[in-house]
Design goal:
This protein is an alpha+beta fold and about 150 residues long. The chain has one domain. About 40% of the residues lie in helices and about 25% in strands. The chain has 4 helices and 6 strands, in the order E-E-H-E-E-E-H-H-H-E. Strands 5-4-3-2-1-6 form a 6-stranded mixed sheet. The longest helix has 22 residues. The radius of gyration is 14 Å and the shape is globular. The termini are close together. The N terminus is likely disordered.
């Protein structure tokens, strides 16, 4: 999670049901020292794996990215929005420990995959992008750990 390998291995990967296609990735960071570098790695991973949705999660903010499939370049991957992490995950307080945050993101994704309506954010800001981009990528998907157990 903390070190940036030459080729990113996301913290969480959601595979499509019954096939090994990457539907969504999530990168969890306690601190975000170089957001542009991490975004570039996310975009590269998304393109290499034909992944349409990505999350970058810190204790305070969560960014959603999606591939518009416009031209199959990094330029086709757009930031959907920046959201409060506690609101999007439905947490009572901010989690500053990276491992706890990782587990909270994993549990939320698993909950969305199995019973999405009950896992939606209560806040209206993140609710629409979660329904529009994240839920379709997760339906019946398999949430797997990438770099953390």
């Amino acid at each position: 999670m903390c070190a940036m390998p030459e080729h990113m291995q996301p913290d969480l990967i959601v595979l499509a049901p019954d096939v090994p296609d990457v539907a969504l990735i999530a990168e969890v960071r306690q601190e975000l020292l170089d957001r542009q570098a991490i975004e570039a790695q996310l975009r590269e991973y998304m393109l290499d794996n034909r992944c349409s949705v990505a999350l970058l999660v810190t204790p305070s903010k969560t960014w959603i990215y999606r591939d518009t499939l416009h031209d199959f370049t990094e330029a086709s991957i757009r930031e959907v929005g920046e959201f409060d992490t506690t609101e999007i995950l439905g947490l009572k307080r901010s989690l500053t420990n990276e491992v706890d945050l990782f587990h909270a993101v994993r549990e939320w994704l698993e909950h969305l995959a199995s019973a999405w309506a009950s896992a939606l954010p209560l806040a209206s800001g993140p609710r629409k992008p979660v329904v529009e981009y994240i839920v379709p990528a997760l339906i019946e998907g398999r949430v797997l750990s990438g770099s953390l157990a």
